[in-house]
Design a protein that fits this description.
The chain is an alpha/beta fold. The chain has helices at about 5-25, 105-115, 125-130, 180-190, 225-230, 245-260; strands spanning about 30, 60, 65, 100, 160-165, 195-200, 235-240. The protein has 2 domains: about 1-25 and about 160-265, no CATH class; about 35-155, no CATH class. α1 runs antiparallel to α2 and α1 (about 5-25) runs parallel beside α6.
């Protein structure tokens, strides 16, 4: 992700502006999930501010105390610990592990939580998503959205669910497959297929022409593409090797407005 993280961060202000133009006063919740079971800062050498580094300061690193949520798959990511990450605790409005419309500086807050870095952890994308949504496809034994949970208050019955997946590899490690993911996502929103919108910016080696492998042979089928294009009513697939991601976000933002206008929660 080293090559692609800057493109994501550069695109967010454009996405935020598009959301404001399309959705106006709608109340937003933005959560970046921890897609693994690890918190991998072995020492404080990766702290953003070297003055925060106390090699003898465990469990306090970078001026923040590490808690159970930092190790919990599906919890909101507020302390990136990999190479190239924010390397500090992101302090969000209301003390949440996700951004709300009360955030005074939305782009800065997103820059902090989305700067997850890159490293050795194997992403389990849909395991992370369904853990964050408390869906039983992934049994965690805890309810992250319940009172006192890591993501308390994030999931709402009266809101659309927008998934944005950024991944530079095929989706090979999550439980289930496209059919199970579809059923689970729609179940979270009471079976309403118009209440779920998704964008995956990922490897495109499975198609020709390919931005990621323009000179190489076509790769194996990618089940992420099958999920987005064949199983979701409102799914969009985009190449992570595109020079900029802003147009993808604007396209999705334009789809949200009419869906919000017609959305009637159960």
């Amino acid at each position: 992700m080293k090559e692609y993280q800057p493109r994501l961060l550069a695109a967010f202000p454009e996405f935020a502006q598009a959301l404001e133009e399309e959705l106006g006063g709608f109340d937003l919740h933005v959560l970046v999930t921890d897609s693994s079971y690890t918190w991998s800062m072995d020492d404080c050498a990766l702290c953003q501010d070297p003055a925060d580094c106390d090699p003898n300061g465990m469990p306090d690193l970078c001026g923040a105390t590490i808690d159970e949520c930092d190790y919990t798959m599906g919890s909101g990511e507020t302390f990136g610990s990999e190479l190239g990450s924010s390397g500090r605790r992101c302090k969000l409005a209301g003390g949440h592990r996700y951004i709300t419309s009360a955030e005074p500086d939305l782009p800065a807050a997103f820059d902090c939580i989305a700067r997850v870095g890159w490293g050795s952890a194997t992403p389990q994308t849909f395991d992370s998503i369904f853990s964050a949504l408390d869906h039983p496809l992934v049994e965690t034994g805890i309810e992250l959205n319940a009172p006192g949970g890591c993501n308390e208050g994030f999931l709402r019955d009266d809101a659309l669910l927008l998934l944005v997946i950024i991944q530079d590899s095929y989706e090979n490690w999550s439980l289930g497959g496209p059919y199970q993911w579809r059923k689970a996502l729609y179940a979270v929103k009471g079976g309403d297929e118009d209440a779920v919108i998704a964008l995956a910016i990922t490897a495109d080696n499975d198609i020709t022409p390919s931005l990621c492998a323009p000179d190489g042979p076509q790769g194996q089928p990618n089940r992420m593409r099958a999920f987005m294009e064949d199983y979701l009513k409102h799914g969009t697939m985009a190449s992570i090797c595109a020079p900029e991601y802003g147009p993808f976000f604007k396209q999705v933002a334009a789809k949200l407005a009419p869906l919000c206008d017609q959305f009637i929660p159960d």
